[in-house]
Each structure stands twice: as structure tokens, then as C-alpha cells.
Amino acid sequence: MLSYKDMDQTQLETTLVELKSNYKKFKDQNLNLNMARGKPSCDQMDMTEDFLFKVIEETEKLESKDGTDCRNYGILEGLPEMREIFSEMMEIDSDKILALGNSSLELMFNVISYSMTQLRPGATKPWYEIKDRKFLCPVPGYDRHFAVTEHFGFELVPVQMTENGPDMDEVERLCAADDSIKGIWCVPKYSNPDGYVYDEETTRRLAKMKAADDFLIMWDNTYCVHHLYDDPAKQGHLLDIMALSEEAGYPDRVLVFASTSKMTFANAGIGAIAGSKSNIDWYLSNLKFQTIGPDKMSQLFQAQLIKKAGGVKELMKRHATILRPKFELVLDVLQEELGEFNIADWHKPLGGYFISVNLQPGTAKQVVAMCKDAGVILTGAGATYPYNKDPHDSNIRIAPSYPTIKELETAIRVFCTCAKIAAVENYLSQ
Amino acid sequence: MLSYKDMDQTQLETTLVELKSNYKKFKDQNLNLNMARGKPSCDQMDMTEDFLFKVIEETEKLESKDGTDCRNYGILEGLPEMREIFSEMMEIDSDKILALGNSSLELMFNVISYSMTQLRPGATKPWYEIKDRKFLCPVPGYDRHFAVTEHFGFELVPVQMTENGPDMDEVERLCAADDSIKGIWCVPKYSNPDGYVYDEETTRRLAKMKAADDFLIMWDNTYCVHHLYDDPAKQGHLLDIMALSEEAGYPDRVLVFASTSKMTFANAGIGAIAGSKSNIDWYLSNLKFQTIGPDKMSQLFQAQLIKKAGGVKELMKRHATILRPKFELVLDVLQEELGEFNIADWHKPLGGYFISVNLQPGTAKQVVAMCKDAGVILTGAGATYPYNKDPHDSNIRIAPSYPTIKELETAIRVFCTCAKIAAVENYLSQ
Fold it and tell me: Of the residues A269, A291, A308, which one is the last residue of a structural domain?
């Protein structure tokens, strides 16, 4: 098949007519499909709901394994059984983990918020007083991360992602030169949106690089057990950054996050934060003014649900059974429709919730708008960049989890059609 | 019976010997009783647990009345059915209420925290930049309130409580003179610890007084439906401070809080915040960076639980049936043991969770320590004052809710014995 770039004007015009005719057929279907956010599907939640109701039916006493009455006040650090589940997931000792609230985003927000007005370990000033405070944002990345630091007045400094993690030459250069850079956002395993896994060198360099004394690696390991394949060889391997930073003499540099939002119920899951003893003590020294304790009944039910499902690994295998065909479908259609035209590239993720597609520069906004006109909602173009500004107007994040397989196939074909139209129009205008 | 103050030295010494003998008998029982915190009792939670399990058994779909799937992300402002329940409780339109999180303390912390770094309505500077920021603390009051503002660097300014609310002459004088006073903590109905209800004049004066443009009344109406008596004549009546402040031209002066912590489950309840449209929009404009949404499954179950119990009023009558005998027992024993000696005074609350006892000045710390030695834990002396400093060392907060009736009688008799010993020793040392 001829690449668009090798076509002459007449060939391009003929192609465009054909593509627009296909697009019109989609439009005439009055579609209403959504690939915008990483929402678990109804199938996934029906599965966990079944376990929940079984567990509740078998519950005789709302009591944790240490005898705590889960119906009453107390236990600021979370239930022991929930902390142990996170310990298995995060590969961190449970005494360095707090199980709190209904999502991990809140814990990340709190870390930044606390640090604005209170001295975090290593800091000589609350960050409110650092007028030119900055935060590193590997791009493309997660819009909600960037938004937290933007909300608190940080300048967001983009750093290019590679398939091994952020460009470490650039990260080291920036951090060594500027103490007002206070941290970096990381989704180290199955990164949002590319699905990359930080390699050993990247992790080691992050742990030991020169940076501000209160520099903070926000290690959002949200997809730590969210593999698409049961085969260990097809699962990302991540080094223990907390241990590495301690070895390097920076024990308080890292905070690690995870949640059960995409294991049990989205927005009714449990969030977790892990760190060195002084980091955890610091978090608790703020938290104790904010709350008397987390919802232990929710923690108890979820710990029991996960146990009932056969443990973390078995539960995640069940989720993968639902998610894997969706990812494979999207990747197959992308390859089939776009593969030979040289107008897009993407990485094949082994886990996580997203597929990131880089279109012809200058076409992402147009494609999102055309998809929307045809009833297919994508994450906004630019959303994966600070301030919503993708300098190449190229990156689009696809979230294949929520639609059914049938909906997904239609949605991704609409997307590919729009991508092709935009590319052809781009060549025609040159 | 002779008042201690009318006894001569010999009579006092004889009395002391007798009291100490009683105290020793209590000590020999190796008691382990706790009247420190306002924890609901197991009886109360057994009752609500029964409703919870019934409700879950009958649940066919985890869906809210507006069709929202409670298992997935979304609905930042909380479920409509939960906001309607709060509307009934708080007597505020549901569109001015957000139902969020598992307790109201977190919402209060967030309000102060947000205001530290972001401009709240009426503010010209984030409060972090007000170096001499102050907050009014009616005393005796709630330690966790005071602690939040102390944590954020406010100077805590005590104002004397009266049976009608805080001393408004003093509040008006302070606020008119000092723009760095940014707010006041209020528990307007069944105040913590006295059980007073703010009268109409106090409420009107708070709503219309001269104060800083960003002055904030933290109206913690946590005991709004926590009556001990079913008789409306025996229930505190509170004016609508939000309407009054709007009338007075200060629509953004008040934020109102409530929760179901002492209706369904402590720490597994739902918190609520209410305010003017601009206040609520402001809260959401911060919250949207902090979380994707609250735990809607918990909200759904609790809304259904309350409905199952016959609604708010019926549910609270059931709680009162358990709590009322405890309050009456404590009040009866206080009257029987201390009433005629003129060494203590207290108010008889019609709702809420506490009984506040003012002992002979200079004896509160001693009484708490003696009780502790005999195995009876009370709220720390001074805890009802900013910085833990009761200038008269007199006030003690008694929480009768958690112990059983039998435990409670022993505990309160220990307390009375200690109060008498301290008073007699006090007279002997004069």
C-alpha cells in the first residue's frame, strides 16, 4: 500500500473522498461512545460486586484481624489486613504503608498541600515561600498529576518520556542546577499514557541524582499489579526505589502511591501511601488534624473481597481477562488501519489502562474534534501535557477499558478514519 | 448536709479519710473504663449494623436514584439521596450541600487548608500571607477544632461561652477592631462540651456583625438532630444563620457542617458541607484537584440504611433511647454526689454527646489524674481550651455514650469521689 507521503495530489484527493464517505457513514450512526477516561468497565465491576456481596453475606462481625471494631473511631494508619494487601502489591513492608481514603489522588494532593504550609522532611521552608517553585512533568503524562501542582502555583517543567522512563540526562541537568525544582511526577510501571516501564538505570539515577534537599519523587505506582498478561516475562519489572534512595543517602526522597480503585471499585476503593519512617510520621503528623481515621468498614470489606477472589494475583488475572481483548483489539485495528501509512506510532503496553498514539504533528486537535462530531469522545488533545499544550499537537490517549468490545471496535475505527483524513488533508495543504 | 466550705478542719479531715477509703475500694477493682471521647456505643452500632445488612440484602443494583453507577468514578458533589437527607437534617436546600468523605472534620480541615493557599470568597490574600492570623475559640470548646487552626499557625483567641452562645459583646469588640481575625469555631446546637444552644440574638449578631471581609463562621452543626428527648419543647431551636448572613449582606460568611458519624457508623459515616453558591463553588474548585469523587457506595448504603430505619427522626429516636438513660444516670449521680457540696456545676444538656462539669478551680488536672489511677479515663483536663490551657483548671468534659450503663455508674462515682477528695484537699490547704 502506498504511504500518504508518497502519493501525488490526485491520489491524495481520491483517498480523501473515500475517507470522508466512510466518516459520513459513521456520523450517520449517531454514535455515543467514550474512550476518554480510564474507567473500569461494568463487566469488571459486576465481577467484584459478586465477590463483595458474597463476602458481606459471610461477615459475622465487622472486626479487623487485630480485634478493632471497624464501626467505630480510630486506627489512623488503616486496617492491618489492608496494609498487608498493599504490602504484597507494592513490595514494601506494611509498616511503611498507610491505607487511607477512597483514592490515591487525594493522598498525592495532600502531600503537596501539606508541604505548602508545613515543613516536610529535608525542607527549610514551606513550599508556599518558594516563589519560583517548579515540578518536573514527564510528557506525555497524567493530567490530574500536573493539575495538582499547577493548582498550588508550581511552574510545570516538561521532560520528555522515553521507553525507559523520563529523559534522565535532562532531569539530572535541571535538578542539579535549580533547588526550586521540588519534585517529579512518575507513573513508573505501565506509564500513563504510554504504558512504558521505568528501567533499572532510570530508577537508580532518580534515586541518587543531585537535587534539592526536599526534592520529592511522586512515585505513583497505581498500575503495579495491573498486568495484561499472566506471563512474568510479559510483565514490567521495577526496582525498589525506596531502598535505592535510602542507599544513596536520600531516604525521604520518595513517596509511593497505589490504590484498589481499579481492583475493587473505582471511587470506592482504598488508597495507599508508602515511604520512609520519617515521611510516614510526617504524613500522619498532618493527617491527625484532618481526620480521626479512615473508613475501616470499607477497608474490611475490600480486604475480604480480595481474599475471596483468591488474592491479588487471581483477582488481577480476572481483570486482565476482560481488559486484554480490548487492548489487543485496539492495537490490531491501529495496525490494520494506520500501520502501513506511516502517519502514526504507538507502543504496545503490557499493562495499565491506556494506549498512547502519536499522530502526524498538527493533527491531534482536529482528530479529537472530528471524533467528537461523530459521537466518539476521546481525552482532549493536549491533556497529556502541562497547561494542556502539546507542542506538536500530536499525542492522543486512548482508554479502551470502559466500552464493550463491539463499541470499542466502532470507536477505534472512527478514530483511525479521522486520523487518516487529518493526515491526508495535512499533506494536501503542504 | 454540710458544704465543704462550711466544715472546720477536723470535719474536713474526717471526710477526707472516708473519701480516700472509698477511692481505694474503687482502685482495688482494677477498673478499665473510658469516658474520654464521644464514641457511639456498641449497642448503637449493633442497631445500625442490623439495618445495614438488611439494606444490602435487599440491594439489587448499586445505582443511585439518578441512575449513577455507584461503583464507578464521578459525582464530585455526592449522591442526590445523601444530599437530600442532609437537607432534611440541616434545614438547608440540597443544592447548597455537598456530601463527601467519611467525616466532617476533614471538610473543616480542608476549608482552612484551602484558604491558606487559595483566595476564598471575600479574601484579598491567601491566609498564609496574614502573618498575625487569628481564630476565635469559644471556651470551653472542641479540642479538634482548635487544633486545626493551631496547626495552620493561627493565634487562638478564647472567648467565653455562655448558655446562649459565645459572649457576643466580646466577639463583636474583637472582630470590629482586628481584620486579622479570620473566623470563629461554633457548635451551635448542643455545644461541645456544655450542650448549650445558640439563642436567636447570638445567631443574629454573628450574622450581621462587623468583621473582616473574609471572616468565616465555622458552623459545625454536628448535633443538629441528636436530641435526647422526642418532645419538640425539649429540643434546641436554632435560627438559619446562612439566611441571616445573606440578609445582612455577608452571604459567604458561613459554612455549615454535619455528618452521619453518630447516626450510622463513626468513621464510616458521611460528612457534609453547606454554604452559599459561591462558597460551594469555591470548595469544589479546590476539591476537583483533590479527588475524582467520594465513595458513592458508602453513601448509597447509608442513605438506604437511614430510609430503612424510618428516616432521620425515627433513627435518632432509636439512638436517644440508648443515650438518654446514660445522660440521665450521669446527671442523677452528679446531683446526688456533688449537688449539695457546692463544689461543681454543670448544665443539663438536651442533646449532643457531652456533659461539661466545672469543678473547684485548680482541681481538674488532679481529678483527671486520680481517675486515671483508678482506671477511669477522662478527656484530659484543659482539652476544652486552646493550647490545652484552662486558666481555672476547672473544666472537665464527660462523654457518657460509650460505656454500658453499669460501667458508666461506676465511672461517674469514681469521678465524683475524686472531685470530692480534690475539693476537700483544696479547702484543707487554704
Answer: A308
Report DSSP letters for A226-278, one per residue.
-BS-S-GGGS-----HHHHHHHTT-TTSEEEEEESTTTS-TTSS-EEEE--HH
pLDDT in tens, A367-406: 999 999 999 999 999 999 999 999 999 999 999 999 999 9
| CA B422/CA B362 separation, integer angstroms | 9
Establish if B51 belongs to a structural domain: no
Q: What is the pLDDT of residues A161-200, one digit of tens each?
A: 999 999 999 999 999 999 999 999 999 999 999 999 999 9
Question: Considering the domain boundaries, does residue A50 fall inside one?
Answer: no
**Residue B16 pLDDT exceeds 70:** yes
Interface test with B, best of A47, A68, A100, A102 (most B CBs within 10 A): A102
Using CA coordinates, name the residue in chain A closest to B47: A71
Name the closest residue on chain A to residue B264, using Cα atoms: A71
Nearest to A114 by CA among B400, B426, B128: B128
CATH number at residue A320: 3.90.1150.10
Would the pLDDT of B1 be above 70? no
Is B144 in the A-facing interface, judged by CB distances under 8 Å? yes
Do residue B281 and residue B361 come from a single domain?
no
Place A203 in a pLDDT band, splitting at 50, 70 and 90.
Answer: very high
> 3-class DSSP state for residue B419?
helix
Percentage of chain B modeled with pLDDT above 70: 100
Q: Where are the beta strands (DSSP E) in A281-401?
A: 344-346, 355-359, 376-378, 395-398
A-chain CB neighbours of B74 within 8 Å are 267
Least Cα distance to B336 among B416, B397, B404, B410 occurs for B416
Nearest Cα neighbor of A77 from A52, A51, A107, A120 is: A107
Q: Which residues between 116 and 135 in chain B have a beta carbon less than 8 angstroms from any beta carbon of chain A?
A: 116-118, 126, 128
Q: What is the mean pLDDT of residues B82-108?
A: 97
A58 inside domain:
no
Same domain, yes or no: B196 and B237: yes
Peptide bond into B193 cis (omega under 30): yes
Q: Does A316 touch chain B (CB under 8 A)?
A: no
Rg over CA atoms, chain B: 23
A299 lies in the same domain as A323: no
Q: Give the one of B48, B72, B106 whose C-beta lies nearest to A290's C-beta.
A: B106
Domain that holds residue B304: 61-308
Q: A103 and A198: one domain? A: yes
CB contact (8 A) between residue B268 and residue A102: no
Cβ contact A22:A374 at 8 Å: no
pLDDT of residue A5: 87
Per-residue model confidence as pLDDT tens digits over A290-318: 999 999 999 999 999 999 999 999 999 99
**B158 and B227 inside one domain:** yes
If asked whether residues B324 and B301 sit together in one domain, one would say no
A56 part of a folded domain: no
Instruction: Give the chain B residue nearest A126 (alpha carbons).
Output: B128
The total domain count for chain A is 2
Read off the CATH number of the domain in which B147 is found: 3.40.640.10
Q: By the CB < 8 Å criterion, does B377 face chain A?
A: no
A331 in the same domain as A269: no
Q: What is the pLDDT of residue A194?
A: 97
Taking the C-alpha atoms of residue B203 and residue B199, their distance in angstroms, rounded to an integer, is 6
Q: Give yes or no for A285 touching B (CB within 8 A).
A: no
Confidence of residue A342 (pLDDT cuts 50, 70, 90): confident
Q: Which of A292, A305, A379, A401 would best serve as a mutation to test chain B binding (most B beta carbons within 10 A)?
A: A292
